[in-house]
Write a structure and sequence with these properties.
The structure holds 3 protein chains of 3 kinds. In chain A, strands 1, 2, 3, 4, 5, 6, 7, 8, 9, 10 and 11 form an 11-stranded mixed beta sheet that branches. Residues 1-8, 15-35 and 42-48 of chain A have low confidence and may be disordered. By secondary structure, chain A is of the alpha/beta class. Chain A has helices at residues 2-25, 52-62, 74-85, 96-108, 122-129, 200-210, 213-224, 232-245, 254-262, 281-284, 316-327, 332-335, 358-364, 370-388; strands at 64-69, 88-93, 116-119, 135-136, 156-167, 191-194, 249-251, 271-275, 289-291, 300-310, 365-366. In chain A, strand 1 (64-69), helix 3 (74-85) and strand 2 form a beta-alpha-beta unit. The relative contact order of chain A is 0.18. Chain B has helices at residues 43-51, 79-82, 99-109, 114-127, 143-156, 173-190, 201-207, 225-230, 235-240, 257-263, and strands spanning 4-13, 17-27, 32-36, 58-63, 66-70, 75-76, 85-87, 161-165, 193-198, 210-215, 218-223, 247-250, 276-279, 285-287, 295-306, 311-317, 320-326, 337-342, 348-350, 356-357. In chain B, the strands form 4 sheets. In chain B, strands 7-8-9-3-10-11 form a 6-stranded mixed beta sheet, sandwiched between helices. In chain B, strands 2-1-4-5-6 form a 5-stranded antiparallel beta sheet, with helices on one face. In chain B, strand 4 and strand 5 (66-70) form a beta hairpin. In chain B, 41% of the residues are buried. By secondary structure, chain C is mainly alpha-helical. Chain C has 2 domains: 19-46 and 368-592, MetI-like (MetI-like fold, Orthogonal Bundle), CATH 1.10.3720.10; 85-261 and 321-357, MetI-like (MetI-like fold). In chain C, 70% of the residues lie in helices and 0% in strands. The longest helix of chain C is centred in the first third of the chain and has 36 residues, at 81-116. Chain C starts with a helix and ends in a 12-residue tail after the last helix. Residues 305-313 and 596-603 of chain C have low confidence and may be disordered. Classes of the chains: A alpha/beta, B alpha+beta, C mainly alpha. Chains in contact: A-C, B-C. Chains A and C meet through helix 1, strand 2, helix 4, helix 5 and strand 7 of A and helix 2, helix 3, helix 5, helix 15 and helix 20 of C.
């Protein structure tokens, strides 16, 4: 028996060695940019060469467009789009990491299935997907002039405040006035947030907190009435550490956060960090959500959703038309039907419940610098893993 | 008809197990040969090699002068083409087929038309007295019936050579005798060559025309059953054949050496060569007083086992037990002293190599 | 020269004999195929632990393809390794041990009650006992959370909370519910294995001991337990591996309180965007699994060949329960209630309620089944009208169906080769490799296969996003079941029925068609049925492979859970369970095979 066992091992090893060339054979090629047949050549700057009708015709020839979006509203947009142009939209709600994974796999395998992504992880977009050619930034030339320059590259089609909110039935006024309050024992285990580890945008937010020491120091002084005594280099990290140590409760989605915070009939309801759109459910689900008005130095951050074409996508013209659509009239399901989201296109009518215009909101929110996010993300994640997972 | 010849057949399993070692055997056409030996002696392997289910490592195998296997010629006729019949110890009836389907399978493989098959199945089942069981499934049969079906399945194709691998070992005693008779009758009727593997000497003795006694992958003796019984060529054969077994007295043995020495005057010329003396239980005589025979020895009567037809007596001779078989009931009580005796020509003599010495 | 000539002659002889007995060729083809389909992806996974992949390179700033120890260090030795690896590791061991401790005695006890006592209705009981295995493992978790969920997780409130009782965290989430739910799901394994062992164990063995004056205790210790050792070890092995590969339950019940097991830790690392760390964790689980198998091999070697079944069946005597009948029956009914009725009942109930747990007339609704619109879920339709559900249903049936057929066929071939070439290298290799997928957690296996087959390799085009990839990966993942049942069945059948056919002059194909396949009908069906059932409810394996066009029912459930469409998700779970029931019953009806009697065929 012993002899046989040994031989069996040799045999297995021999087969293993034989398979190595097979494994090594699969080389990953970085796709080279190329112009494709039948694609209407309309670049970001070529306003004069842009012909919407030609694009519509070319798109209609393609017949359909596949989209992965972080928002489930893509389905409603798709229905409207199909109604208008007769082009079917296969829209799927999908988180950032999964989208990135799929796009990379699809492009690498030269079997691209998706045309457009609606994506929130700006850091990965600017750090990887765009520079390495997985996705292509295309700004509709006719709309470009009305967009602010920083919304064009990469192209933002939706702005949402992701903010701290509370249950107005449980608290007469916003319980959090200052961001440092979040680190207080009073709120230990009572702050709900979508899992930062799986939400790149939240990580980006924390990274940008770390690089804004002045705001934090100022807030500290206004809350505690004295300087923090923490160095400018450390104060951001110190804040994050204290926050993470305060037992944040992790949820799977902002919707879950909103539901838990806003549920009616609670005595000492938790507070939460969620996208403003969740407050639309106040009616449908009888929630009691309200924003943390007047929170110092900011109530949350401005969460952009980007819309980009995937490299070598199967329906490039339909993809462009869809992007064009959601930046013009197609944003309705996001921005006009319910409250909480803003189109970067100033012509888009805002929802009356929005507690102000996008300009107003920008003052209440931290704006994310994707480069900072890219650089510090891992460090923030490690800090979160280290402190956020201790009981 | 069919003559099987094995020449220098060798078979090993793995690096260390030699199942069959340089085996030579000729099975004459129409004979009923038993391979007799304890389990693990290589008899089943030999049978499987003849059937083609195992491939020998070396040697040659012929059927009627036709080469079936040769290591040096690179020849190996597959089982399917050998046309032999093989009955397994477990019967290996196909449980999903009826008796008739089981029996007709081989005929079907030979492309026999349906009607002819039906007739042949009927014929064979009648031959084995199981024609009423045609539509039963194996699980609905008794052991003896299964055995008959297994036999019928192989007989249906009318093979020249029928191989039987301990076919009766799963049957009870009565059925076994019945099947033995049946087998002998079949052999007498059909006259095909039968190779029969068994560890039961009674089966081998009663059924066979020839018995090959196997031990450790070798054939120790190949002869008609009575020859084997009367003139065992070897100590192992002598010990294996016969029930109760032959009594042995050996030169090297502590308890028996006195008895052994008492035999020596009987064969003066051979005294040096003989190492073991054997005598069968039925060749020993018992008397309450010292007999006049050339050889006798005192013994203590221990106990008696009456079998109905005869009496097996155990005696204590110099601290060891020997057996006698008597045709009449002994009138002695346990513990009494008796004398045993025998005739010189009934003694079996073996040398230091355990080989038989022909007495003068 | 002479030696060479001889070798060639031998080869020629072998080749000439091929049509009669192609076992060796099939064996070698199988070896090669499994090496490519199973070993190679796993090897690629190993490579991923030391080579920077594209997604990691963005965050850690090392170019793609560079060899590095970064991931190993990060997983085992960094300041985050406690969270990333060590805690989940110890927790996995703890949970797996606890599940073994609950599931195996439970399975063994019920097996004994059903097989060896005169428990009334034992046939029905043995049928119902298999139900927890049939329904997806995470069903229990979903049901548990529907009942015990407290405010911590947000979303729709749990039933108890709605009824006024707020369950504490330790009851709602973490170790306790995970252990309970896993045990409920896993114990049918032990039940089946012990049931078969007890069924094939001759009562005379115990009776001989009793005649010799052994007490019941001595009989159990000296006769029954040693004979049940294979079943015990197999259950232990299967249970442990099961926990090692189970994703849904710890995900649903553990994530909220950050109680991670290795599969969820792996998934997290993957989701967070560090596939390198995920690969390291995956390799650890593979390593753990391989050690389990090594252990198994070590023990199995001692009784590999004790086949008790021969021409005649063993005698089975049932011991009377006497005065214990009622308590035993009562206990069994309670257990059935907990394992089957309550979880399923809860799920069904929630699909009829707007707010689960609120028992008012206006709270009940049929919207989640037949509603053309659902007030709380914009744009969604009830189960029977929902295009997403219907499409995913079609995909599920197609993928699980083809995978199980492929798998059952492969499993039988493996069984055939292993038993026909006993003690050979090919057999040893096939045994090990065909069992390997069981050890790789589904997510890891999917990740390995995905990265291996996503790019074109030689003649095989890129399989990314194709239905075929799902079928392939699924059939390989379930090959262990099929090949094990194939090996067992082939061993029980023995070689003789086929050899008898050889002697009768039947060639290989005819032997297969007329003898082997008909005799293996039950085993083959089991080998198809089990993967089919598993395939219908598989989630963690396919979640990474399913693309929008190839969404399966189970991944659709996760999408619904993502949207917070609890009732729709629950309805889909109920739908899957219903389909599995119907499939099982109709196949049983069709073939007479009985899932409750399990792996053993009546040889």
């Amino acid at each position: 028996m012993k002899g046989i066992g040994k031989k069996a091992h040799l045999f297995v090893w021999a087969l293993l060695i034989l398979t190595i060339p097979l494994i090594a054979g699969g080389k990953q090629e970085v796709p080279k940019p190329e112009t494709r047949k039948g694609e209407i050549p309309a670049g970001a700057g070529g306003q004069e060469s842009f012909d919407l009708n030609a694009l519509i015709q070319a798109a209609q020839k393609e017949g359909e467009v596949v989209a992965y979006f972080t928002s489930s509203r893509i389905k409603d947009v798709g229905t409207a789009f199909e109604k208008k142009y007769g082009i079917k939209v296969k829209g799927t709600k999908m988180g950032d990491p999964e989208q990135a994974e799929r796009v990379i796999r699809e492009v690498d395998s030269k079997n691209v299935l998706v045309d457009v992504i609606g994506f929130e992880d700006g850091a990965l977009l600017e750090g990887k997907l765009i520079p390495e050619g997985y996705v292509v930034n295309w700004v509709p030339p006719d709309i470009a002039p009305s967009l602010s320059p920083e919304d064009r590259n990469p192209l933002v089609f939706l702005w949402q405040p992701r903010i701290f909110g509370y249950n107005f039935e449980s608290y007469k006024e916003p319980p959090i006035k200052n961001i440092w309050q979040l680190t207080e024992p009073a709120w230990k285990g009572k702050i709900l947030i979508r899992d930062p580890a799986q939400t790149p945008a939240n990580l980006a937010f924390f990274a940008n907190i770390a690089t804004n020491p002045k705001l934090l120091e100022e807030a500290y002084r206004s809350y505690y009435g004295k300087p923090s005594g923490i160095s400018e280099k450390d104060i951001g990290w110190e804040f994050l550490k204290r926050l993470f140590q305060n037992e944040l409760i992790v949820m799977r989605s902002d919707e879950d956060v909103g539901d838990a915070v806003g549920a009616a009939g609670q005595k000492e309801a938790p507070i939460g960090f969620y996208t403003l759109t969740k407050q639309r459910d106040n009616k449908a689900k009888n929630l009691k959500l309200a924003t943390m008005k007047g929170m110092v130095p900011f109530m949350g951050y401005a969460l952009p959703t980007y819309a980009l074409m995937v490299k070598n996508c199967p329906h490039p013209n339909a993809a462009k038309l869809l992007i064009h659509y959601i930046l013009s009239e197609g944003h309705v399901p996001w921005t006009a039907r319910d409250m909480g989201a803003f189109s970067p296109n100033p012509k888009a009518p805002p929802h009356p419940d929005n507690e102000g215009t996008w300009t107003d909101w920008q003052k209440r929110l931290l704006r994310i610098d994707n480069k900072v996010a890219l650089k510090l993300r891992q460090e923030v994640l490690d800090l979160w893993l280290e402190y956020g997972h201790k009981k | 008809m069919a003559e099987i010849v094995l020449k220098n057949i060798r078979k090993t399993f793995g690096p260390s197990v030699v199942a069959v070692d340089d085996l030579n055997l000729t099975i004459q056409s129409g004979s009923f040969v038993s391979l007799l030996g304890p389990s693990g002696c290589g008899k089943t392997t030999t049978l499987r090699m003849i059937a083609g289910l195992d491939t020998p490592d070396g040697g040659e195998l012929y059927l009627d002068g036709k080469l079936l296997f040769s290591e040096s010629e690179g020849c190996m006729v597959p089982t399917e083409k050998r046309g032999m019949g093989l009955v397994f110890q477990s019967y290996a009836l196909w449980p999903h087929m009826t008796v008739a389907q089981n029996v007709s399978f081989g005929l079907e493989m030979r492309g026999m038309p349906k009607e002819a098959r039906r007739k042949r199945v009927q014929e064979v089942l009648e031959l084995l007295h199981i024609d009423t069981l045609q539509n039963r499934y194996p699980s609905e049969l008794s052991g003896g019936q299964q055995q008959r079906v297994a036999l019928a399945r192989m007989l249906a194709i009318n093979p020249d050579v029928l191989l039987l691998d301990e076919p009766l070992s799963n049957l009870d005693a009565k059925l076994r005798l019945e099947m033995r008779t049946e087998l002998k009758r079949l052999h007498q009727t059909l006259k095909n060559t039968i190779l029969y593997v068994t560890h039961d000497q009674l089966e081998a003795m009663t059924l066979s025309t020839h018995v090959a006694v196997m031990h450790n992958g070798r054939i120790l003796q190949y002869a008609p059953p009575l020859t084997i019984y009367r003139f065992p060529a070897d100590l192992t054969v002598a010990a294996f054949v016969g029930s109760p077994p032959m009594n042995f007295f050996s030169r090297s043995e502590n308890e028996g050496s006195d008895v052994f020495r008492s035999f020596l005057p009987l064969f003066p010329g051979l005294a040096e060569r003989v190492h073991t003396v054997g005598v069968r239980p039925e060749d020993l005589y018992l008397s309450p007083t010292p007999p006049l025979d050339p050889w006798s020895y005192p013994a203590i009567f221990e106990t008696v086992l009456p079998t109905g037809s005869d009496w097996i007596v155990s005696l204590r001779v110099h601290k060891r037990t020997i057996f006698l078989v008597l045709r009449e009931e002994p009138r002695i009580k346990p513990g009494e002293q008796v004398w045993i005796s025998t005739r010189t020509e009934k003694l079996h003599l073996f040398d230091t190599q355990q080989k038989r010495i022909e007495s003068p | 020269m002479k030696g060479q000539g001889m070798r060639i002659r031998r080869l020629v002889t072998e080749l000439r004999l091929l049509p009669y007995d192609p076992t060796k060729v099939i064996g070698f083809l199988l070896c090669a195929a499994l090496a490519y389909l199973i070993l190679a992806p796993v090897l690629a996974l190993l490579l991923d632990t030391v080579r920077v992949n594209l997604r990691d390179s963005a965050t850690i700033g090392i170019p793609t393809g560079t060899f590095t120890t970064y991931f190993l260090q990060r997983t085992f030795l960094s300041r985050v390794s406690e969270v990333l690896f060590w805690k989940p590791f110890w927790q996995t061991l703890f949970v797996a041990g606890a599940v073994c401790g609950i599931a195996i005695p439970m399975g063994a006890l019920f097996a004994w009650l059903v097989v060896r006592t005169d428990l009334p209705g034992s046939k029905l009981v043995s049928r119902l006992m298999v139900v927890p295995y049939m329904i997806p493992s995470w069903t229990f978790a979903v049901a548990w959370i529907s009942v015990f969920k407290n405010r911590r997780l947000g979303g729709l409130a749990g039933m108890l909370e709605t009824m006024g009782f707020v369950p504490p965290d330790w009851l709602a989430y973490g170790a306790l519910p995970i252990i309970v739910c896993e045990s409920l799901h896993v114990f049918p394994f032990a039940f089946l294995l012990f049931g078969n062992a007890l069924r094939s164990m001759d009562s005379q063995l115990e009776e001989s001991a009793r005649v010799l004056g052994a007490s019941s205790f001595t009989i159990s210790r000296r006769i029954v337990l040693p004979l049940l050792k294979p079943a015990l070890l197999s259950s232990f092995l299967l249970t442990f591996s099961r926990v090692l590969g189970s994703f849904g339950t710890p995900y649903i019940l553990g994530s909220g309180v950050k109680y991670y097991l290795l599969p969820t830790a792996l998934y997290n690392s993957y989701k967070v965007g560090s596939p390198g760390v995920a690969a390291v964790i995956a390799c650890v689980t593979v390593l753990m699994g391989v050690s389990l198998v090594a252990l198994d091999m070590f023990f199995v070697r001692e009784y590999r060949r004790f086949i008790t079944l021969g021409g005649k069946g063993a005698i089975l005597r049932k011991s009377p329960l006497g005065g214990l009948t009622l308590p035993a029956l009562f206990f069994t009914l309670i257990a059935l209630g907990i394992t089957v009725l309550i979880p399923l009942g809860t799920l069904v109930l929630t699909t009829f309620m707007h707010r689960p747990g609120l028992f008012t007339v206006e709270n009940f609704t049929l919207d989640y089944w037949i509603g053309a619109t659902i007030p709380a879920m914009v744009g969604q339709k009830g189960f029977f009208l929902n295009p997403d559900i219907l499409r995913s249903l079609k995909n599920s049936v197609w993928v699980a169906g083809s995978a199980s057929l492929l798998c059952g066929f492969l499993g039988m071939l493996v069984g055939y080769v292993v038993v026909r070439l006993p003690k050979s290298r090919v057999a040893a290799y096939l045994r090990q490799v065909s069992f390997l997928p069981y050890l790789v957690p589904s997510i890891g296996f999917a990740a390995a296969s995905l990265s291996f087959f996503a790019v074109p390799r030689g003649p095989i085009p890129s399989l990314y996003g194709s239905m075929f990839l799902l079928v392939l990966v699924m059939s390989l993942k379930y090959l262990p079941f099929a090949s094990r049942s194939g090996i067992t069945a082939m061993m029980q059948m023995g070689n003789e029925p086929e050899e008898a056919a050889r002697v009768c002059g039947a060639g290989w194909l005819r032997r297969m068609g007329r003898i082997v396949l008909p005799l293996q009908k039950h085993a083959l069906l089991t080998g198809v049925l089990l993967p089919l059932i598993s395939g219908m409810k598989e989630q963690s394996l396919v979640i990474m492979l399913a693309t929008p066009g190839t969404e399966l029912m189970t991944t659709q459930i996760l999408r619904f859970i993502d949207y917070g469409y609890t009732q729709l998700a629950n309805a889909t779970v109920v739908g899957i369970v219903g389909i599995i029931f119907i499939l099982t019953l109709s196949m049983e009806r069709l073939t007479g095979a009985n899932l409750a009697t399990g792996f053993a065929s009546r040889g």
